[in-house]
Automatic annotation (TrEMBL):
The keyword Kinase does not apply. This is DYW domain-containing protein. PPR repeats lie at residues 159-193, 261-295, 362-396, 463-497, 563-597, 664-698. It comes from Manihot esculenta. The keyword Heme does not apply. GO terms for molecular function: mRNA binding; zinc ion binding. Belongs to the PPR family. PCMP-H subfamily. Residues 880-972 form the DYW domain.
Length: 972
């Protein structure tokens, strides 16, 4: 049958349908109980009797069938069978065609299959091409490509309508490659194409972004004379745009003779908007108004999507105003686009008004609001809105679940995250890769990597993001070995890696402080050509974590275009490695690079200043922070409190703490630590109580700070009580550092036997820190018996801290065991450790002056030693000072010991301070080691006889000397 005869027959059938309405009556059918695909709608089954053929006209209306519901059409069709069943044999196309179309529009697959089954049972020798085409079309619309293909393959005769139906089935059900394969077969068979063929083929090309094939089909459309047809031209524009050829799309649009169809404009505006060309999209929107083409909802959605930055905010608000002015009912799609636009601009109040005024809210609208809260960091509001969604009777879908998982992770609400995880499992979302990846990230942010690992392994089809997210989570939560093991699995699977994954792998290598692994990964990155600015900065940090300053510096110098993160990584790495002066020098170079410092780099600088105790520089940075408006940031406030505390200015630390309204747990902890550092244990305990009153839950670091404060103030009962509170009230298992604080507290107060018994009964294995605390107490209180045990325990451990060896050596030296001292020093030398020399520094003017014991490198060396001699003479004459040589732990004569005491580094710094600062001003000194007992006495006498306040920070705590006394009460 040729195309003309087929069309004529189709027209004839349509005319016959119009005479069939008279006998249709209503009948109710019971609902089906069959199980079908989720999207399939359930309708009553067909109760179709058998019949015998008898040619006649059947009064059945196609138009009536289109206008009715499927239930009504089926009931009417059953009545028709009852009265005219014997007439249907010769009228299958007339009756079943409209019903199949209705099934297709309603996506009622089960009912379509029943109709198909009845057609087969009708004993017709061959089903017509028309009806077979309707079947292919119905199956395609109902999402069953397999059934459509079976019908198509069994057809002996196929028209272009049949092939178009099959093409549409492939394209609409996500099988564009099958559509293009069919196109090639049609070309080989010489099948003529019509104008409806090209949109399907062009959509398939757009889906797979096959520009070459799309251009070929474009040429064929020109050859067939179909390129000027509006819907073909629109499909061509969309194809070029989806294949990222916007110039081709625009040229085609500009050549269109008839641009009165709004769909053409929508296609081009959507193309620009979808590809981030917002200015072009907005320009085209202005042109459409000049062309007097009536816009529709699709136009508004596309142009609202193009309103991305603040320069287009005014236009977006004007469009909103125009919609309100028109007094038309706001379309839900336009409303969702308006919400998304206001979210991008952070205008949540305007978005809320739109949402509240919208009568027809669908789940997409609710999800849009949820996404907006998340995008603007309003995570608590998102959780509350999620409850509102449920109260409105709506069932959260996959998008809702993902948003709430994100909010739970950002807030660190593990319980909420687990609840929504359970909901996802119950509703079949948990094994979706998007939900799974978000769950991994949420658990990682809640520091719960056990659950993150389980969520990862439960994803059946993991994608690259799944692997990257779990590796990043392990690396960020100090599970460095697990991160590297997963990376090896990635390599064994042969997956490609990207810069983000390699950054996480470097973080794990740096966390392990394994230089060999960092070098290996660095070489791997270079070989794979993955290096980018972000990864280069990560490499700097990784080398810094490993303490290899030379590699770190070389990497920094090799970066041609250094960004703010490059400088921050370099400064932070210097601070991390105890090179605060070098960090400040890098910052001075940074200022010459004309870059604006951000809060992160300023926090690193404050840490450098704090380690040097350079109060003046700290105040300068504080002023800079105020001028830049960064004082409200939590990390900056925390760093300022810590800086002032470590620079000896407890008053300024208190002022910042009191003036901060929304105090975080970190800030409370920093202030508690500040009080403890300055020997104000009672104030620290009171502050801890106030913090509990604010309903804040202390963590391990908070308890470490309060135990430290108790230790340096001799608060034995309070220290014991805080260990109990930690375990019983907050279910926090103490770390070795907590036990070390308690041992130190007992030892300082001369409860050495109790401290020793506590160490032996500890629920965890004792660490070097614990034995070091006990040994230090034994040295102060001359407990040789327990000191011997602690010293031997330390020597038996594989320790790499030179300070611990130095302490053991000093204990032996105090007992005159010089041979043992020599053995300890030889052991240190054998493992490459060196004792840190005593060093003190003082800030005068705008410079830090550093002194070593018996140092003569200072430019004013002679004046300093002359002044120190005058000070010592005055202390001996007026203060009764006598050198305590027992603090000199060297095997030398008494006279040499006295001489060595007189030239300790802090005394040189004090002498220079008295020479270079105005009378009455405090002298601030920092020392890298613990102040010896003789120097402590020296400082007390200086404060009294020279009427100066001395603020000395040693490795243990602060000493405030004033009028011959120290605030530590000789307890340090």
């Amino acid at each position: 049958m040729n195309l003309q005869s087929y069309s004529a027959r189709h027209l004839q059938f349509s005319c016959q349908f119009s005479a069939m309405a008279a006998s249709i009556s209503h009948f109710n059918f019971p609902l089906l109980n069959s199980t079908t695909k989720p999207h399939v709608k359930h309708y009553p089954p067909l109760n179709i009797p058998k019949f015998s053929p008898s040619p006649a006209r059947i009064p059945f209306s196609k138009e009536k069938c289109k206008q009715s519901t499927l239930r009504y059409a089926f009931s009417s069709f059953t009545d028709l069978l009852t009265g005219h069943g014997n007439l249907l044999l010769f009228n299958l196309d007339h009756v079943y065609g409209p019903l199949l179309e209705l099934c297709a529009s309603e996506k009622a697959l089960l009912q379509g299959q029943q109709i198909h089954a009845h057609i087969i049972k009708s004993n017709v020798a061959r089903i017509s091409v028309f009806l077979s085409t309707k079947l292919v079309f119905m199956y395609g619309k109902c999402g069953s490509v397999l059934h459509a293909k079976r019908v198509f393959d069994k057809m002996c005769e196929r028209t272009i309508f049949t092939r178009n139906a099959m093409l549409g089935s492939y394209v609409s059900n996500g099988e564009p490659l099958q559509a293009l394969e069919m196109y090639r077969e049609m070309r080989c068979l010489g099948v003529p194409f019509d104008s409806y063929t090209f949109p399907y083929l062009l959509k398939a090309c757009a889906t797979v972004q096959d520009l070459r094939c799309g251009a070929e089909i474009h040429g064929l459309a020109i050859k067939c004379g179909n390129d000027s047809i509006v819907y073909v031209a629109n499909s061509l524009v969309t194809m070029y745009a989806k294949c990222n050829d916007l110039n081709g799309a625009r040229k085609l649009f500009d050549r269109m003779n008839d641009r009165s169809d709004v769909v053409s404009w929508n296609s081009m505006i959507s193309a620009y908007s979808g590809n981030g060309c917002c200015i072009e999209a907005l320009g085209l929107f202005r042109e459409i108004h000049k062309a007097a083409v009536a816009t529709n909802a699709y136009t508004l959605v596309a142009v609202l999507q193009a309103c991305e930055d603040y320069s287009s905010m005014k236009l977006g608000m004007e469009i909103h105003a125009a919609i309100l002015k028109s007094r038309q009912l706001l379309d839900v799609y336009v409303a969702n686009a308006l919400l998304a636009m206001y979210f991008r601009f952070g205008k949540m109040a305007e978005a809320a008004v739109i949402f509240d005024d919208l009568d027809d809210k669908d789940i997409v609208t609710w999800n849009s609001m949820l996404t907006g809260f998340i995008q603007n960091g309003l995570y608590n509001e998102a959780l509350q809105f999620f409850h509102d969604l449920q109260d409105a009777g709506l069932k959260p879908d996959q998008v809702s679940v993902i948003n709430i998982i994100v909010a739970s992770g950002r807030l660190g609400y593990l319980l909420n995250g687990r609840e929504i995880h359970a909901y996802a499992i119950k509703n079949g979302f948990a094994y979706n890769v998007l939900v799974g990846n978000t769950l991994i990230d949420m658990y990682a942010k809640c520091c719960c990597m056990i659950y993150a690992g389980r969520a990862f392994h439960k994803i059946p089809n993991k994608d690259f993001i799944s692997w990257t997210t779990i590796i990043t989570g392990y690396a960020q939560n100090n599970c460095h070995i697990e991160a590297l093991e997963l990376f090896r699995e990635v390599q064994m699977e042969g997956m490609d890696v990207d810069a983000m994954m390699m950054g996480s792998v470097l973080l794990a290598c740096g966390g392990l402080k394994c230089l060999i692994l960092v070098k290996e990964i660095h070489g791997y990155i270079i070989r794979r050509g993955l290096s980018d600015p972000v990864l280069q900065n990560t490499i700097i940090s990784a080398y810094g974590e490993c303490g290899t300053v030379d590699y770190m510096s070389r990497m920094f110098e090799s970066i041609e275009c250094k960004d703010i993160v490059s400088w921050t990584s370099m400064i932070s790495s210097y601070v991390h490695n105890g090179l605060a002066n070098e960090a400040l020098e890098v910052f001075y170079s940074f200022k010459e690079a004309t870059l604006e410092p951000d809060s992160i780099i300023l926090v690193s600088l404050l840490s450098a200043v704090a380690s040097l105790s350079t109060l003046k520089k700290g105040k300068e940075i504080h002023g800079f922070i105020i001028r830049k408006g960064l004082i409200s940031e939590k990390t900056t406030v925390n760093a300022l409190v810590d800086m002032y505390a470590r620079c000896g200015s407890l008053d300024n630390a208190c002022k910042i703490f009191i003036s901060t309204r929304n105090k975080s747990l970190v800030l409370w902890t920093a202030m508690i630590n500040a009080y403890g550092m300055h020997g104000h244990g009672e104030a620290a305990v009171e502050l801890f109580t106030r913090m509990k009153g604010e309903k804040l839950i202390p963590d391990h670091i908070t308890f470490l700070a309060i135990l430290y404060a108790c230790s340096h103030s001799g608060l034995i009962n309070e220290g014991k009580r805080f260990i109990e509170i930690m375990e019983n009230d907050y279910q926090l298992e103490p770390w070795a550092e907590h036990y070390a604080c308690l041992v130190d507290l007992l030892g300082r107060t001369n409860h050495i036997e109790e401290a020793y018994q506590f160490v032996k009964s500890m629920p965890i294995a004792s660490t070097p820190e614990v034995w070091c605390a006990l040994l230090g107490a034994c040295r102060v209180h001359s407990n040789k018996e327990i000191g011997e045990i602690a010293a031997q325990k330390l020597l038996d451990m594989d320790i790499d801290n030179p300070g611990n060896y130095a302490l053991v050596s000093n204990v032996f030296a105090a007992s005159g065991r010089w041979k043992d001292v020599q053995k300890v020093r030889m052991k240190m030398k054998g493992i490459g450790l060196k004792k840190n020399p005593g060093c003190s520094w003082i800030e005068v003017g705008n410079k830090v002056h550093t002194f070593l014991a018996r140092d003569r490198s200072h430019p004013e060396c002679d004046k300093i030693y002359q002044k120190l001699a005058q000070i010592t003479e005055k202390l001996e004459r007026e203060g009764g000072y006598v050198a305590q040589t027992k603090f000199v732990l060297h095997n030398v004569g008494e006279e040499e010991k006295v001489h060595m005491l007189y030239e300790h580094s802090e005394r040189l710094a004090i002498a220079y301070g008295l020479l270079s600062t105005a009378k009455g001003t405090p002298i601030r000194i920092t020392k890298n080691l613990r102040v010896c007992g003789d120097c402590h006495t020296f400082c007390k006498l200086v404060s009294k006889l020279f009427v100066r306040k001395l603020i000395v920070r040693d490795a243990s705590r602060f000493h405030h000397f004033e009028d011959g006394a120290c605030f530590c009460g000789d307890f340090w």
